[in-house]
Amino acid sequence: MTKIWANSGDSHLVEPEDLFDTALPKDIAERMPRSVKDDDGVHETIYIDGESFRRRMPSVTGLTDDEGKSVIERAPNANDPVKRLIDLDQEGIWAEVVYPSIGIWTASIKTPELLAAGARAINDWAISYQESSPRYVTTATIPLLVAEDAATEIRRAAGLGFKAAFFSVVPPGEDDWNFPSWEPVWEALSETGMVLAFHIGTEPFAATSFAGRYMRGPGGAILNYMETTYGGQRAVSKMIASGVFDRFPTIKVLVSEGGATWGPFVADRLDEAYRQHGSMVRPKLKRLPSEYLYENVYASFQHDKSAIPAMTAMGWKNVMWGSDYPHLEGTFGHSQQVLHDLFDNVDEVSARRMTVGAFQELFPHVPEAPAA
Length: 372
Ligand code: MN
What we know:
Structural class: alpha/beta
Oligomer: single chain
Largest sheet: 8 strands, parallel
CATH class: Alpha Beta
Number of strands: 11
CATH architecture: Alpha-Beta Barrel
Strand content: 15-25%
Number of helices: 13
Helix content: 25-40%
Bound molecules: manganese (II) ion
Mean pLDDT: 90
CATH topology: TIM Barrel
Order of helices and strands: EHHEEEHEHEHEHEHHEHHEHEHH
Low-confidence stretches: 59-65, 68-73, 208-212
Strand order of the largest sheet: 1-5-6-7-8-9-10-11
Number of domains: 1
């Protein structure tokens, strides 16, 4: 089996447990997000800014090899940016967009000063992770409670060397992504060239399915997982409909882990709304909504077979693969199998675009992946 090398538009780092304790004063550190695993090995409790909730830790069932043995393994080297490359080489993953793990929970912090301090602490640490290999594109954590704080950290992070800014799919405050209060943030992204990286499933505590409060009853586990899918689609729709890309045409958005076939679907629906409800549409846009989605927006998928025709049959060129390393939903331990299953019957140009090219367009500073 030839090795397929692929960039990943969706990976994660695991922060050291003492990150906040070493970087921040004790009274601030103890209000930052942390996970405490239960003795049962199944549940964990997440503590954030004086609130907490218990949840079942993510797990995956049903993926087995020919002998019926589970192919899901925990990635052993994720915590170490040097050893991590051993895993990546084994899996055939070249470069990665690397999101925070516990840092994702910062979207649930309610105190602006606390959030800004936490984001700075995470970023000061995460940039050293990025610097350990040119194959890492770590995302900066952005304090999104106050737009001016966010703009300030985007500029500071760009100065540190970050190329992508992690955003939760729903902002933690009152104003959603289509509101004018975010203008300073769009300006900062536009000015710095930072890629806006939405990771699905990052709704703040109050709005989240993560808290296990969204769906109960039969089918709940699947339904809650499905709910995490839609946030990226909504976030992108809000930016397009409110004219963000009219005013800032160079902003690039990546939606990670949410599949890709939704792109052409949402583009069609946005166009239909824009056309058929034209008399009510405010603001008017310079171009059709679909044009912004097809040009400014990128998406990563991991297992979805339907993601391939989103590019090859529906013409959305900004589709890229992602491993979700080292998370359990991801492809660790079976990445080559997944890549071959996905791409063996795809023409070479399209396959290279999805495994390497779309990623490289967003992050041209990253050295090119080896040929297959
Ligand atoms: Mn992910």
